[in-house]
Amino acid sequence: MDTWMRFRSNDGDIVFGRVEGGYLHEYKSLDQPVPTGAVLSTRVLTPLAPCAPGKVVALWNNYHALAAKLDKPVPAHPLFLLKPAGSVIGAGEPIRRPAGYAGKIVYEGELGIVIGRRCRNASVEEAADAIFGYTLINDVTAADLLNENPHFPQWCRAKGFDTFCCIGPSIVSGFEWQQAHLVTMLDDVERQNYPLDDMVFSPAEQVSLISQDLTFEPGDVIACGTSVGVGSIKEGATVSITIKGIGTLSNTLIAAGATAAAHAERAAAV
Amino acid sequence: MDTWMRFRSNDGDIVFGRVEGGYLHEYKSLDQPVPTGAVLSTRVLTPLAPCAPGKVVALWNNYHALAAKLDKPVPAHPLFLLKPAGSVIGAGEPIRRPAGYAGKIVYEGELGIVIGRRCRNASVEEAADAIFGYTLINDVTAADLLNENPHFPQWCRAKGFDTFCCIGPSIVSGFEWQQAHLVTMLDDVERQNYPLDDMVFSPAEQVSLISQDLTFEPGDVIACGTSVGVGSIKEGATVSITIKGIGTLSNTLIAAGATAAAHAERAAAV
């Protein structure tokens, strides 16, 4: 298992690499994982989302427990929508309430798959090889917009707002997802705790099947869908998603008008 | 009015600029429209889609005539899905039937808006200024997949396949869309002929309202939705979409296994 992160350096450059003992061993990129030789202390770096996906494919109804709760049959092919690249933020960055939207905002703790190489019509074996590693995702939704129009469910709109796709803190390659649980805390209350092996389509099956539909590029992300326990977030509340072996992804919801500086001050005061 | 195109040169470089009298006057980029001084004959260049959108926002139910035909009320906010960047092809490139999909493939002739600058929470006036120009789009759909699953309409999947977003041949800046008609020919039969001023949301309104939902980046595209006359395409058939003042976008559907070389041979033989 290796842990991979992406940072902004003091001079504004973006650096990516393997993190070990407080140091970043820089690599050329996620699709060209060749060491540059540079070693940087992570203390002088600002963490970013661990990859910059061109697209995020987000699954619906991919856990047996949630399908049973919703009383829906499990699908025969992954059901997905797309979240735009602009919705991505990293660990610690604030989720912003959209200006002009006063409705319910919902968290969903999810396993994320990060694609390492271009991938189209891939077999399950080829798909497994195309997976660079795993990360954590909070797939945020403006829930009241989903069915606002009775003729067209607005999945892309409700889930596509800026800051509505929290990814991080790292990507772990060689991670054995089969034995892992995902835990979501809303402030200090546990709201989700589900085993990843309850998935309908495994990560390699997802990549293989969806690669029949579209071409994956390096850095693209699949949000594997969530299970039971989703709920709404109030301003000021922090959602923390943990998978042992990957880490914890924490993000706080802030009001539409709030500034990131005020958010940082509040966070520092806690 | 200026006409803008993007090409691949013989040495593999991508060049963008203003086209006039068979020459490309190269510009730095769409968001930095500064002339480089280079002037190239378009005869030695291979045309590409005129921009490389990070995302394509595709509208549903944006024409009064189609809403009336579908017996649906016109929406209060643009209804949209996202088509991935990988679905984009240019004029003359083949639309490929997805491997493993034997169902109906449908064309939709549409006006395309090309965004020129980053744009978020824009007023209608700011949105109008953020529009670089207009292009033509064939928004292709694997229609039988849309409602294959009764619990989740698969808009992104059905419209997201590689080659399912034809854009081109050029972008025209300063184009007066209000007086224009869009005509779609299926081989030599006219199938769509509708006035653009029947739109529910005008281009500037679309950019303004959708910029409340997500951030537009330079080169992003909005497919403005289609009107009456959509229909299915058979292998070997060519869809040609024309708006006077912008040009004609033609693309031929080829079988899943067919090669582009065979397509080019067939096209040359006609």
From TrEMBL, chains A, B:
InterPro entries, per database record: Fumarylacetoacetase-like_C (IPR011234), Fumarylacetoacetase_C_sf (IPR036663)
UniProt keyword annotation of Translocase present: no
Record keywords: Metal-binding
Domain of life: Bacteria
Residue intervals of the Fumarylacetoacetase-like C-terminal domain: 55-253
Protein name in the entry: Fumarylacetoacetase-like C-terminal domain-containing protein
Originating species: Paraburkholderia metrosideri
